[in-house]
């Protein structure tokens, strides 16, 4: 777009700052609003897929992210009896490709540093509660009653519990899942969990996972691991009342090598409870505002796509804005552009989640019989790997070629799976 737009972005998670950086670089006047007064590390680690990494590369943030992140070469999951259910290697797509486990704080740190370099104002402690019409533009009103704007474009990136998306007048369905997870991030001094997202599945009621999560800025002593345990949310209080020991015994029965890791957990409160939502919208933008990230399409984290999709939204949105003559034309184009990618992951996540997290245990038996055979059928396995990598845009054949991401050669992980903190300094 020729004109310099005044853009407000609500939410400084992952999609919000990414959109801010892209748009500021394109010459627009961007302001970010974030309700928390200081950006603290909340939530668990997540897995960046090749799609998310390619967006970070375009943001000029990839090298720094790779210095904090932990290379993840495969997703591996089995039953307690040792039956392999998932064994998906990124290198089956292309040699040298992998995912990156990262702490939320590290991504935010890197993105905020880049925003600072570009001089993007970030208004912390500002909870936006109302989107107000101002002729052809919009204003924002915060909890204290302060008004900001007018803005040519408002980007709503306020997460799965968004209070603003309903104000856009777009059709939206929000459904919470009964099942969620409890999380703990701890140090992995003995290097028991490296190079893979490791999961154990028993029926549909037990899911235990370990994700290498790299380092957080300023704390680069021992690498971190995120542990997650699936739980029906209404059973959380009962789980807490039972005390930690029976749960720890169960974890050790499933994964004996977690013993030293578990010594870091002494109180149930150290485990963070996370619930998920399905958010389904037919369109994400009207003629002057757009919803991106979890606010637009939250889903269960079963396929590990949320951050990656939020980053991709930001990139595609900027591209649509740059190519259009008006905001409404850009947002109409954005609605078209994002449809297939987002619809596929919403469908696939809704379809896959009950096989791993639900009270309907026969699905666990189906999973234990069907999934392992899928691993031996190369075309099926490749479809699963493409889905994991974030590339799918349709059920059977449709996927983005990996090459279309233009992801550069990633540094080879060290033999013990450590993040490549020295690689860029040397290269
Ligand atoms: C347990 C769990 C595990 C996950 N694992 C993965 C994974 O492995 N891989 C992956 O890709 N994704 C994963 N996800 C999903 C991922 O966390 C989300 O998809 C991602 O954080 C979405 O980013 P976002 O920017 O849209 O929203 P968020 O990160 O939620 O950011 C929204 C921001 O908006 C702010 N905000 C909210 N309301 C307002 C307001 N009114 N005014 C101002 N600011 C506001 C919030 O404080 C927050 O900072 C996981 C999620 C969960 C719950």
Shape: globular
**Strand runs, count:** 19
- Per CATH, the superfamily is FAD/NAD(P)-binding domain
Number of helices: 13
Query: Which range best describes the helical content: under 10%, 10-25%, 25-40%, 40-55%, 55-70% or over 70%?
Result: 25-40%
Bound molecules: flavin-adenine dinucleotide
Tell me about the largest β-sheet.
9 strands, mixed
Q: Strand percentage, roughly?
A: 25-35%
Uncertain stretches: none
Compute the gyration radius: what is it? 21 Å
Question: What is the distance, rounded to the nearest whole angstrom, between the alpha carbons of the first and last residues?
Answer: 37 Å
Number of domains: 1
Corresponding CATH architecture: 3-Layer(bba) Sandwich
CATH topology: FAD/NAD(P)-binding domain
Text of the CATH class: Alpha Beta
Strand-pairing-aware structural class:
alpha/beta
**Overall mean pLDDT score?**
94
Q: Care to describe what's here?
A:
This protein is of the alpha/beta class and 427 residues long. The chain has one domain (6-176, 276-405): FAD/NAD(P)-binding domain (3-Layer(bba) Sandwich), CATH 3.50.50. Helix content is 34%, strand content 27%. It is built from 13 helices and 19 strands. The protein has helices at 15-25, 50-58, 62-68, 104-118, 236-242, 244-254, 259-262, 294-297, 306-323, 327-356, 362-376, 378-389, 423-426; strands at 6-10, 29-33, 46-48, 70-78, 84-89, 99-102, 122-123, 128-134, 137-142, 147-151, 153-156, 172-176, 179-187, 195-202, 206-216, 219-232, 272-274, 277-281, 289-291. Strands 3, 4, 5, 6, 13, 14, 15, 16 and 17 form a nine-stranded mixed sheet that branches. Strands 7-2-1-11-19 form a five-stranded parallel sheet, covered by helices on one side. The chain has a three-stranded antiparallel sheet with strand order 8-9-10, with no helix packed on it. Strand 14 (195-202) and strand 15 form a beta hairpin. Helix 1 (15-25) packs parallel to helix 9 (306-323), helix 2 crosses helix 9 and helix 9 (306-323) packs antiparallel against helix 10 (327-356). The longest helix has 30 residues, at 327-356. The chain is globular. The two termini are 37 Å apart. The model has no long low-confidence stretch (mean pLDDT 94). The structure holds flavin-adenine dinucleotide. Flavin-adenine dinucleotide (FAD) is lined by residues 10-16, 33-36, 44, 46-47, 127-128, 157-159, 163, 181, 183, 274, 276, 293-295, 301, 304-308, 310. Flavin-adenine dinucleotide is lined by residues 10-16, 33-36, 44, 46-47, 127-128, 157-159, 163, 181, 183, 274, 276, 293-295, 301, 304-308, 310.
């Amino acid at each position: 777009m020729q004109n310099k737009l005044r853009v407000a972005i609500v939410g400084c998670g992952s999609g919000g700052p990414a959109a801010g950086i892209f748009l500021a670089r394109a010459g627009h006047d961007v302001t970010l609003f974030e309700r928390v007064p200081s950006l603290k590390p909340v939530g668990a680690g997540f897995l960046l897929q090749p799609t998310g990494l390619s967006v970070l590369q375009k943001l000029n943030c990839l090298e720094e992210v790779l210095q904090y992140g932990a290379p993840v070469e495969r997703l591996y999951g089995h039953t307690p009896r040792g039956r392999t259910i998932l064994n998906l290697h990124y290198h089956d797509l292309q040699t040298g490709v992998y995912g990156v486990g990262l702490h939320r704080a590290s991504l935010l740190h890197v993105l905020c540093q880049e925003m600072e370099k570009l001089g993007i104002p970030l208004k912390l402690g500002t909870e936006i509660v109302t989107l107000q019409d101002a002729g052809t533009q919009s204003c924002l009103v915060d909890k204290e009653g302060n008004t900001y704007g007018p803005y040519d474009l408002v980007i709503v990136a306020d997460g799965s519990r968004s209070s603003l998306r309903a104000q856009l007048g777009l059709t939206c369905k929000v459904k919470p899942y009964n099942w969620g997870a409890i999380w703990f991030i701890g140090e992995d001094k003995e290097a028991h969990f490296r190079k893979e997202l490791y999961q154990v599945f028993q029926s549909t009621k037990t899911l235990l996972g370990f994700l290498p999560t790299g380092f957080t800025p300023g704390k680069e002593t021992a690498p971190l691991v995120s542990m997650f345990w699936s739980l029906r949310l209404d059973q959380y209080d009962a789980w807490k009342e039972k005390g930690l020991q029976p749960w720890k015994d169960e974890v050790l029965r499933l994964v004996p090598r977690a013993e030293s890791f578990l010594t870091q957990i002494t109180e149930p409160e150290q485990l963070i409870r996370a619930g998920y939502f399905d958010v389904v919208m037919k369109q994400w933008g009207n003629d002057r505002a757009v919803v991106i990230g979890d606010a637009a399409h939250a889903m269960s984290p079963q396929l590990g796509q949320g951050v990656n999709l939020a980053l991709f939204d930001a990139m595609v949105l900027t591209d649509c804005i740059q190519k259009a003559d008006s905001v409404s034309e850009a947002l109409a184009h954005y609605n078209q552009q994002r449809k297939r990618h987002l619809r596929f992951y919403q469908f696939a996540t809704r379809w896959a989640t009950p096989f791993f997290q639900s009270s309907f245990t026969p699905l666990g038996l189906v999973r234990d019989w069907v999934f392992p055979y899928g691993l031996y059928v190369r075309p099926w396995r490749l479809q699963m790997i493409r889905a994991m990598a974030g590339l799918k845009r349709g059920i059977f054949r449709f996927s983005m070629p990996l090459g279309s991401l233009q992801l550069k050669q990633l540094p080879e992980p060290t033999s013990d799976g450590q993040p490549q903190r020295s690689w860029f300094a040397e290269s």
